[in-house]
Amino acid sequence: MSAAKAKGAKGTPATLAAAKAGIEFTLHAFDADPDAASYGQAAADALGLPPERVFKTLLTEVDGRLTVGIVPVSATLDLKAFAAAAGGKKARMADPADAERATGYVVGGISPLGQRRRLPTVLDASASAFGTLYVSAGRRGLEIELSPADLVRLTGAVLAAIARG
To answer: How many CB atoms lie within 10 A of CB 77?
Structure first.
């Protein structure tokens, strides 16, 4: 979708942020299963995409500070590597309620774009292998496809090897 097409449309904070930034992106909607064990894997399956191209947004606490990690849905977050990439010593997954409060999104629909406040962000280095990748567009059942470079620019992300598996 072009930025011009999205500007007049109602959307999620993520899609509005992408449109405001003037980047090119495409939205992909699908029927989300509210009982899915993995929302990211469900998105990859529903859209017929390889799971290494669909990325999940995870909130962690690095030395007590909320931080965003973005990794392929086929992988897990390597907390030790993530803490180092975020400039800290110890990382742990954030409480889901804290993640929802900080981002303004519900678990399973947390987007790295358009969060209530900009949090330090680390994107797995594997993202740079793709022309475009997919992340949540801010609600379950909606993915935004954009270039890794635009995702880095819009989130201020650092690229690092933070995925395992």
So the answer is: 21
Only one residue has tokens 């990859």, namely 44
Residue-level pLDDT, tens digit, the chain, 165 residues: 434 344 445 799 999 999 999 999 999 999 988 788 888 899 999 999 999 999 999 999 999 999 999 999 999 999 999 999 999 999 999 999 999 999 999 988 999 999 999 999 999 999 999 999 999 999 999 999 999 999 999 999 999 999 998
Q: Are 44 and 50 spatial neighbours (Cβ–Cβ below 8 Å)?
A: yes
Assigned token pair, 84: 């180092």
Q: How many Å apart are CA 90 and CA 65, to the nearest integer?
A: 10
The answer to whether the CB of 23 falls within 8 A of the CB of 3 is yes
- Does residue 143 contact residue 57 with C-beta atoms inside 8 Å? no
**What's the chain's Rg over C-alpha atoms?**
15
SS3 content of the chain, % helix, strand, coil (to 5): 35, 30, 40
Between the alpha carbon of residue 51 and those of residues 43, 55, 114, 133, 134, the distances in Å are: 9, 8, 23, 10, 10
Tokens, residue 87: 């400039």
